[in-house]
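Researcher: Next sequence.
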Amino acid sequence: MSTKLAFEQIRKILNLLSVGIIVLDADNKALFINNFAKKLLQIDDFQFIDLKEICPQLYENNKLKDRLQLNNKTFRVESKRQGDLALITLEDITTIRSLESENKWLRTVFDSIHEGVHLTNTDGITILYNEACSKFEGLNKEEVVGKKITDVYDVDEENSTQLNVLRTGMPIVEQYHQYHTNDGKKIDLIASTYPYYENGRIAGVYSVNRDVTKMKEFLVKTAELQRRLADEQNNEEKNDQAHYTFDDIIGESAAIKQVKETAKKIARNESSVLIYGETGTGKELFAQSIHNASTFLEGPFIAINCAAIPESLLESLLFGTVKGAFTGAVDAPGLFEQAENGTLFLDEINSMGMHLQAKLLRVIQEKSFRRIGGFNQIKVNCRVISSTNKEPAVAIKEQEIRQDLYYRLAAVTLYIPPLRERTEDIKLLSQHFIEKYNKQFGTSVEMISSDLQDLFVRHHWPGNIRELQHVIESAMNMVDAHDKVLDIKNVPLYLRQKLGQSRHYQANIKKSGKLNDILQEIEKQIIVDTLHKNQGNISKTAEELGIFRQALQYRMKKFKITSNSIK
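Model: Next structure:
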């Protein structure tokens, strides 16, 4: 499983090469043959077949040739073995220079990756752990690869992000984590962890990590570099960071048209704006559009995700520092200064701590602030746009947003409707993402089928446009080169099953109450009905729902589903 998962990650890159690639196991059986080699050697079926049987022309006297004559061309044949795997390459000697350049380019790309990449299979065992991870965690690959996460890190089944994503199937994006390795080293990360699906089932998870153990010094240095760059550029391309305008917001529904018209009116004035919308609805897209349609157009657009950075670091990033404020601190402007005559966008403001919210309130009221460690008052001259993925009244009640700060931030509140309230836009959005991934993947899909469109319209889309984009991207990975229509068969199995159940439960949706309570009630009813259908058999129920047995047991415990519930 680990070998197969690893090859899936690089399969597309290998298939782009104009060099033949063949991977063999210890018994000389083919594990992978890329498109170039298959076309050159006229191979159709190769999985786990001895290479001598499917490619006898590669051998002479039972030994692999070092040269191969085919199609009036000479190919250099090289074989390298690493452990139980062997790699055979077929290179056209006439094009060796271009191939060497291509290989050098690929090596440069791989060597330039500074983010940590960590892949785990369904058993929680690490199967890939790159050099960046090894450097900032201080662990050798041999200490991590092939071992369970719980054996390497001081985590358990409940607080491990990777095991949590493995259990729930839900990605966790841009989250701050702090943990300790078993040798006692403290690690601070901002990580995004995603499930990897194969044939509609989770085959593992992968994390992309950024080391923030020394983030405070890094942020201060970054701020200083940004100030110097701004001084050098003067007024050239000040608006580089705001790329989107209202023309980039896709949709013809009455709901989205009304929001766009409201946002255009808001843009004309200088009042602070609070944008409220569920995750994935496009809040920053609207924030940038408002900036580009406002009198602050010529100024910078500075955005920061308040949930992604610890509060102690966020404070220095917002207000700046003076030299000597703490170890390594230099004179550096904060984001309020960098946003001078422009717009400061505070994303997920409800994730900011109450202590820092109190300081932010004072800054907005007084229109001035002091850098950390400084004494001089600095005037604020920028527009503040903030966003929350939770209804403001609820966030205030749950003490995630100070009520007095809310009144300052929300001179105008802009509500972005979820995708389920603008289903007539799904076709346009789907077409947009199809065109995007056609360019990225080299495919030629022209449209989605009517059946798939019907499924999309019925789906609830809790992840909104971001979830739709994820589904389209997953489906586009499954199309063949000649496919012109994106169909249900291209959609991952887990989503097909979930979409197929949507119509049956639409009539049972409560008309009032909190959205999360309604969704949980529907999820519980689906599980109870499926268990009843399978006479309480957990394994069959999990298979039909497209989730793991452990995930089903976790949900049964969460919803208190017992044998009496399914009679």
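Model: The CA atoms of residues 344 and 384 lie 5 Å apart. The longest strand covers residues 186-198.
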